[in-house]
Amino acid sequence: MKTIHKLVLKSYLGPMILTFFIVMFVLMMNFLWRYIDDLVGKGLGFGIIVELLTYAMANMIPLGLPLSMLLAAIMTMGNLGENYELLAMKSAGMSLPRILRPLIILIVFISIGSFFIANNLVPAANKKLYSTLYDIKNQNQELEFRDGLFFNGIENMSIRVEHQDPQTKLLTNILIYDNSSSSGNMRTTLADSGYIRLSDDKRFLLVTLYHGENYEQTRNSQWYNKSALRHDKFDRQDLTLSMSGFAMQRSDADNFSNNSQTKNIVALSADIDSLEKIVGKATARSYEPLLREQLFAKDPLVLFDTVHLDRSHFRTVQMLDSVARLDLRNKADVWKNARTLSKNSRSMFDYDEMSAKDALNQLYRSQIEWHSKWSLPVSILLFFLIGAPLGAIIRKGGLGMPIVISVIFFVIYYIITTTGQKLVKEGTWEAVYGMWLATFILTPIAAYLIYKATNDSSLLDTDWYYVKLRAMREWLHTRLSPIIVKIKSKHHNDRKITE
User: Fold this and answer.
1) What DSSP designation does 319 have?
2) Mean pLDDT, to the nearest integer, of 397-422?
3) Which region holds residue 191: left if phi is over 0, alpha if psi is between -120 and 50, else beta?
């Protein structure tokens, strides 16, 4: 490898790693902002939080890689251009494609690796992510007592405390309503002070009360007219109650494998094939079998082919005339049977329509995921081919101008991709058009930027635009001056004639 190629690679690897972690940090903050309500107050351990963030980070790699490649390319080429290193390479006879050759090879390998990340790592991480979020949402909150308010976070139990000392956690003026007894007995406890906390494994509620009273209403089989009230006092009372819901129960990640985002290319291809068959069968059901099997199942003369349309119409008119000649009771029976058949047929059609819509929604989502896994490597390579010539043109390094340009291009890409996904989900476009629309639009832009950067174009040089606008203004002045003079002279002559 040439020394110049080592220099270019070394200049690129540092910004690439830096920008990747910056982008992932921003995306991670967005994830925490979305799920902050589900995470706060759960008493989650450090290991669970790290595990959840690891799964979320793996899920965000396909979104962060293209942006980091774009930003790193602009920063690298901008730094080389700002320090006149790029100019020195071109002066030595090296073209821009030749300078970018080692970086292009590196990006190709990264693109191939991104496909395996999207196809293998991301589906597995999504399974774990969804299962962990489900377990966290189903976990009860920690014991949080507020002064003068009832705490109802424990099933069949309500606790009220007058005050909780923030340092010692001592509770004063405790009132407990307990309906957890399997026999239906209700127990009320009053205490001057005490401690209530969960065990370390969150399987038991540890209660220590001082100077209080218990009131327990005992019930028998005739509770509605016979019941007894038991009352006792205590100086200290220790209770250990079995708890459920506070300890985090881990679910099997395979239970969340029905989502299209948890499947790889092979599973998505199998789902697409089966869903296409289901949709084909559902859409093949037309109004004709509905009419034959429901509405006119007992009168085959009504349903003729097109060549017998006149005869069927005549038969229908005869039926209406015969119904009109019936007495009131028989006529009511006929209309009642017709209404029943109509309702049954409508129910059957609604069910078929609902099944077809569900299958279509699953089909569209599977097609979106299938194409997104293939479009990720292409988008990474495309963003690099946009960023590298842009950096060579603007010749600005650092994090100022490169971030602005990168965000603009990424927002354009994201808006186009999101719009395409929406059109695919609605069934307006085919998946291949919606998911590859951004690639079709940005590819000519990348080719144009490479062409301009190779030819040392001053695409973003304000002085170049000022010179061009000045030259255009002079050209227009030269062309339009004789015409303006003729118009003025003609207007002056007409004015003299009128005078």
Assistant:
1) H
2) 80
3) beta
* Tokens (6 digits) for 252: 């099997």
CB contact set of 421 (below 8 Å; sequence gap of 6+): 368, 434, 435
Taking each helix axis from N to C terminus, what angle separates 46-82 and 122-138, rounded to the nearest 10 degrees?
Answer: 140
Tokens of 42: 């759960």
Query: In whole angstroms, how far apart are CA 166 and each of 146, 169, 170, 174?
Result: 11, 6, 8, 16
d(CA 132, CA 160): 32
CA-based nearest residue to 142, from 192, 95, 188, 197: 197
Say which range, 193-207, 299-313, 375-389, 417-431, has the weakest mean pLDDT: 299-313
Q: Both tokens of residue 21? A: 């972690």
- Asked if residues 248 and 138 have their Cβ atoms less than 8 Å apart, the reply is no
Task: Name the E strands within 362-436.
Answer: none
Instruction: List, as one string, the DSSP characters of 188-239.
Output: EEEEEEEEEEE-TTSSEEEEEEEEEEEEEEEE-TTTTT-EEEEEEEEEEEEE
Distance CA 63, CA 31 (A): 13
Tell me the residue type at 487.
I
Taking alpha carbons only, the member of 191, 231, 233 closest to residue 209 is: 191
Which pLDDT score is estimated for 9?
Answer: 86
Could you give the CA distance from residue 280 to residue 275 in angstroms, rounded to a whole number? 8
For residue 445, CA distances in Å to 108, 261, 397, 438, 450 come to: 20, 31, 22, 11, 9
For residue 188, give both structure tokens.
């009320």
* Least confidently predicted of 281-290, 436-445, 464-473: 281-290
d(CA 126, CA 264) in angstroms, rounded, equals 11
Give the largest Cα separation in the chain, rounded.
Answer: 124
Q: What is the pLDDT at residue 351?
A: 59
- Of 102-111, 210-219, 233-242, 280-289, give the range with the top mean pLDDT: 102-111
Q: Is pTM beyond 0.70 here?
A: no
